[in-house]
């Protein structure tokens, strides 16, 4: 296997592997801010009120993981800086963020309703996360089970994590 | 506002609030194991190879958050113990786990394919996570944006987190 040690440590499960890249609170909040359109270090920092050190590490980690990419920019009178843009892999995180948002809206909502929402850019329609089967039919959550897959024998019986 | 301080610290955003409950690597792996049907402490521990101390804290936290519930059981010759079962709120986490699984399958998959999969219990059909608009139409990920919602004025301009 040629996968880097840092991913191997997550075990063979795709959830564990994803958490190796994403499984830290600030990381997903950085992704949220990127989806809100923020690209610059000071924009992320103002929105998240996180230390320069932690934010820098999270942005670096997401660039290394291929979720964000750096693009240089220069404002008049300033040195060149980098902005952070979502890559296609980063944009594929939308369902994760949407699923967290839906769950929080349902189970931890404040008195005034959801503080943010996802909508369709092209027509403003509200968006929800759904599970679909191969025929496009919606699957109720209590009709879902998790079973070992083709790669389950790679190590430690499938879903065993590090 | 009557929400507990521990949730307030997550800021007003539903994502940040959800991460306050779920935003730790082991927590989501415990949920994954619960979806795989594990209910007993030693089953979780054997699958996750996590310390007794960390596992106990994560299970207690998920019970407190209303995601798992304890149910007593007794095996012949042993004292009464507790098993951990998903509550309805816990079962509502299926899309989050499914979204992590899909992303890992797509972007971090091993050479033998996905080590686990979600399927429909009633007929074995494969399941995928999709975003739907109000008319049930699938929404491409790059047509999604995040905007302030009704509760955005509660604190610090909406999506600003702690």
Quick tags:
homodimer, 162 residues, alpha+beta, two-stranded antiparallel sheet, 7 helices, 39% helix, 18% strand, globular
Helix content of chain A: 25-40%
Oligomer: homodimer
Label the overall shape of chain A: globular
Total number of strands of chain A? 5
Quick structural gist:
2 copies of one chain form a homodimer. In chain A, strands 1-2 form a two-stranded antiparallel ribbon.
Description:
The structure is a homodimer of 162-residue chains. By secondary structure, chain A is an alpha+beta fold. In chain A, 39% of the residues lie in helices and 18% in strands. Chain A has seven helices and five strands, in the order αααααββααβββ. In chain A, strands 1-2 form a two-stranded antiparallel sheet. The two termini of chain A are 16 Å apart. Mean pLDDT of chain A is 81; it is low at 1-10 and 154-162. β3 (116-120) of chain A pairs antiparallel with β5 (144-148) of chain B.
Write the layout of secondary structure elements.
The structure is a homodimer of 162-residue chains.
Chain A: H1 5-8, H2 14-22, H3 25-35, H4 41-48, H5 52-64, E1 68-73, E2 81-86, H6 88-91, H7 94-107, E3 116-120, E4 127-133, E5 144-148
Antiparallel strand pairs in A: 1-2
């Amino acid at each position: 296997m040629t996968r880097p040690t840092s991913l191997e440590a997550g075990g063979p499960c795709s959830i564990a592997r994803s958490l190796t890249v994403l499984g830290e609170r600030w990381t997903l909040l950085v992704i949220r801010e990127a989806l809100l359109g923020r690209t610059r270090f000071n924009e992320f920092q103002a929105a998240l009120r996180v230390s320069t050190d932690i934010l820098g590490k999270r942005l670096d980690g997401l660039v290394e993981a291929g979720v964000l990419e750096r693009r240089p920019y220069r404002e008049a009178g300033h040195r060149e800086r980098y902005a952070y843009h979502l890559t296609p892999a980063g944009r594929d995180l939308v369902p994760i963020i949407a699923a967290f948002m839906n769950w929080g809206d349902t189970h931890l909502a404040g008195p005034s309703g959801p503080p943010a929402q996802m909508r369709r850019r092209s027509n403003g329609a509200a968006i929800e996360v759904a599970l679909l089967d191969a025929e496009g039919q919606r699957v109720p959550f209590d009709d879902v089970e998790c079973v070992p897959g083709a790669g389950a024998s790679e190590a430690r019986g499938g879903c065993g994590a590090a």
